UniProtKB/TrEMBL annotation:
Superkingdom of the source species: Bacteria
Species in which this protein is naturally found: Akkermansia glycaniphila
Protein name from the UniProt record: Uncharacterized protein
Amino acid sequence: MQYPDGTEIRIDDLIWADEGIQIARIVGILETEEEYTAWDEPGPCILYTQDIFSAAGDGNALYSLPADLLVQEGIGALSENERLLLRCLCRILADRTGHDVHSPDCNCHIWKYPVPMPDGTFNHRWFLHLGATRENAPHPGWYALDNNDLSFTPLTDEELLVLWGHPFYYTTPANGEIAQAPHPGS
């Protein structure tokens, strides 16, 4: 199976997903009828996870996407420069917040999201979600990267509401206590 640009899709590729705003990892390529029908898919598809550092099957959600929707969904492999930038972001996150995104106690989802500016333009900002996978996990929450000083700032429920239209399951209010907001759809 190939990406829209013609390069081969491989297991463990880091990709742009969710219409090109989220980084994900390929965990399966289902090309034979036996493989894709086992996932109730009508044809060839890829499997990916939003948690780019944990092993598949570590309790993280897997998503399937039919091969004929790769273009529509903005699926494409990260370039070498983007992979280098991702490694730098993860190192900065570990240094500035004390979170080790490679720890089995933590899962990490990463977005590069367009934020509307007052002048009508969009500023693409990096957002990271750290989720707890075990009781002794680091403090879960959403963080935004400040492009000026490369610091990570915890986002409040109010900021999440503005960015995504609803609060997310784990949030970090200004008082620093973990809050569980209603999960979308509940």
